[in-house]
Structure formats: structure tokens, C-alpha cells
């Protein structure tokens, strides 16, 4: 897909990987629909990125998802790509997992991306073209104690996307998975539970920039490859 002039929805666009992806897509010529709960941030970013619009959206609310898609179609008449980036961390051992916290993380990291895919697919089918990129996590490459709840949500998202890709074969729509490594974002400050434990686990680690991940996501939109990871080879990745 040629991203120039494409309409790209980016969730979680108020900071980190989402904001960087919006900037990278805009620089490549895309018209970006910025979706996030923090209206002030995406409004500011929309003013920065020519041809972009900000749509406040809690992706766990179906009515807000529907409104997001309607707004994109009203403004641009099409939706060429969806980047399912909104998500939240979670750190707790199996015995310590609060089930309400776990359900909330599954709702945001797994159910919401599915709802968004369902929301854009009718338009993409009519267009006979579309790109969906689901953002997973490099933590899925290991069995690190305390990451079970978070990894479960992301592994499920990866399999959901891979199966959707096969289901959509021949339609012109591709579903891809982006797997970042540790990235310098607000991830730690927004973690659902276990922030101190997560910070201790990552102490001294070298973090990638959000811009590195954003460039990889824009590449996936363009190529439609099944998956792309930024995980170093020593951790089982391809980088």
C-alpha cells in the first residue's frame, strides 16, 4: 500500500509509540485520525500534523469506537489502515493477579483491538483494500516471572491477528503484528498493577525510541508483511 494520502487510524495516539506513529505516517503523506482518551494531547498533535484530525476515544467503549469510525468516514470518506496501539502493562505473579485488573487488561489489550478490527473491516471490504497492524510486545518471547497476565493478553492478540490474516486472504486486506522491544514511553507510569516490580525488572535496560518502532509500523502498513519484530537475536528475535 502506498501510504501517501492514505487514511490511517492510530489508537493510543496521545503519547509514546502511538504519537510517534502518527508523526511518521503524516511525514509519509498519510492523513491521520488520532484516537486516544486524552483529548488535549491529540488535539495538540492534530494541530502539528497537517491533514490530521483528533477524535477522543476510549477503545473499551463500543459506542466511542463506532463514533471514531463514523468520524473518519465523514471526514475522509475511507479508512485505509488501522494501527491498534492502545494498551496497558500489567505486572504480577500468578498468585498475586487481581482478577478484576486482569479482566481490565484483557479488555483493553485484546477485546478492544478485536472490536476496532470489526469496526473498520466493512469499510475495508468495500474498498477491497486495507491494512491492520496490531502492536504486541517483546515480552511474548520469554517466560519472565510476573509478566503472565500481560503476556497472555498480547500472545492472544498475536494469534487473533494471524488467524484474521488467513481469514481475510484474497480480500486485499492484511493483518500484521508489530512486536517492539523495550521502548522509552509512558508505559511504566500507566501500568495497571505492579509498577515498582516492572521498574525493578527493567532497571538498567537500554530502551528503543518510539520513533524506531513507528518507522517499523509504517513499513508494515506499506508492505503488509505478516509480522515484524525489534527483539534482539539474543532474546529470540530477528534484530
Q: Quote the distance from N terminus to C terminus.
A: 24 Å
Largest sheet: 7 strands, parallel
Number of helices: 7
Average per-residue pLDDT, rounded, comes to 92
Description:
With 239 residues, the chain is of the alpha/beta class. The chain has one domain: Rossmann fold, CATH 3.40.50. Helices cover 45% and strands 15% of the residues. The protein contains seven helices and seven strands; from the N terminus they run E-H-E-H-E-H-E-H-E-H-E-H-H-E. It has a seven-stranded parallel sheet with strand order 3-2-1-4-5-6-7, with helices on both faces. Strand 1, helix 1 and strand 2 form a beta-alpha-beta unit.
Labels describing this entry:
239 residues, alpha/beta, Rossmann fold, seven-stranded parallel beta sheet, 45% helix, globular
Can you give me a brief rundown of this structure?
The protein has 239 residues and is α/β, with parallel strands linked by helices. It has helices at residues 16-27, 39-48, 62-76, 99-127, 148-167, 195-201, 210-223; strands at residues 7-11, 31-36, 53-56, 81-84, 130-135, 173-179, 227-229.
Summarize the SSE layout with pairings:
Blueprint: E1 7-11, H1 16-27, E2 31-36, H2 39-48, E3 53-56, H3 62-76, E4 81-84, H4 99-127, E5 130-135, H5 148-167, E6 173-179, H6 195-201, H7 210-223, E7 227-229
Parallel strand pairs: 1-2, 1-4, 2-3, 4-5, 5-6, 6-7
Helix pairs in contact: 1-7, 3-4, 4-5
